[in-house]
Write a structure and sequence with these properties.
five-stranded antiparallel sheet, 2 domains, BirA Bifunctional Protein, domain 2, seven-stranded mixed sheet, globular, about 25% helix
């Protein structure tokens, strides 16, 4: 299916989601540098005082690839058929060929008591939505924001899976409102990408008929429901489901967080921090920084 023939069903999607997010717009653009950046910039323009310079900025925004609505903070689901400069965590680039990935961002005002664990809740909702009904569980979650496709028969000495998707969550203050922008990227079709340290997996390995629009139709409502649940109840309702897909648990990891040495991943704290157990039994919470892991090497292998 070519980029030109993608049928997104935006009106049907809006009809399903707008009762959950009043004021929502669903927008599809052929190309965007970054859907997250577009929505963040839209909110920042709305928040600035109306100077003469800003009027020109607003006119520029409204005439550029920001979709139908510019300079507001109402909920918006913005889809790019081709995202040319997608960003991942810690400034990494999200690589995607035109039409081969689902790339979208959802912005909405949020005011949770605690933001901790939001990316884990989002990952859990996306993985649960994408997993084929009745199939063996193959989508794993790598703390804090990656989805992996676990190989049915991993080769000895190789990682047990490859990266399927990623999540980037950013927030911005726009007047009295705190706006969350949840960016999602999911590989849909095979792509000739190189130098990917986490490998490459795509939805068509699970379902040959998968397309970017069909994936969006599957994940959009569960994502909205998860965000509403998280805002009210935090990470707790997602903890058990996340644990069932936690691919780091029992793996040897090294972190960049000060004072946390190499150890064995021991699950997730109630607030979504990664637990790392040292050889002497002490357990540390990792809530920031980078975590590297020798996937496929367990605690037993490191002894």
């Amino acid at each position: 299916m070519s980029q030109q023939t993608l049928q997104w069903g935006a009106e049907s999607l809006w009809q399903r989601l707008e009762p959950l997010l009043p004021g929502l717009s669903v927008e599809v653009v052929a190309r965007s540098v970054s859907t997250n950046s577009a929505l963040l910039e839209r909110a920042r323009v709305r928040a600035e005082p109306p100077t003469d310079e800003l009027v020109q900025v607003r006119r520029s925004v409204e005439s550029s690839a920001f979709g139908r609505r510019a300079a507001d903070v109402q909920p918006c689901l913005l889809v790019a058929e081709h995202q040319t400069g997608g960003r991942g965590r810690l400034g990494r680039t999200w690589q995607a060929s035109a039409g081969a990935s689902l790339t979208f961002s959802l912005s909405l005002p949020m005011n949770p008591a605690d933001w901790s664990g939001l990316s884990l809740a989002v990952g859990t909702a996306i993985a649960d939505a994408l997993e084929p009904s009745g199939a063996a569980q193959r989508i794993g979650l790598k703390w804090p924001n990656d989805l992996w496709l676990m190989d049915a028969q991993p080769m000895p000495g190789n990682p047990p899976g490859r990266k399927l998707g990623g999540i980037l969550i950013e927030t911005v203050t726009a007047g009295p409102v705190r706006l969350a922008v949840i960016g999602i990227g999911v590989n849909v079709k095979p792509q000739p990408l190189e130098d990917l340290s986490s490998g490459y997996a795509c939805l068509q390995e699970l379902d040959l008929e998968a397309t970017a629009p069909s994936a969006l139709a599957v994940v959009a409502e569960p994502l909205v429901q998860a965000l509403k649940t998280f805002e009210k109840e935090g990470f707790a309702p997602f903890a058990e489901r996340y644990a069932a897909r936690d691919l780091l648990r029992g793996q040897v990891v090294t972190t960049t967080q000060a004072g946390v040495p190499t150890g064995v991943a021991a699950g997730i704290s109630p607030k979504g921090a990664l637990l790392v157990r040292e050889g002497d039994g002490r357990v540390h919470e990792v809530s920031s920084g980078e975590v590297s892991v020798r996937l496929g090497s367990s605690a037993e292998d490191s002894r």
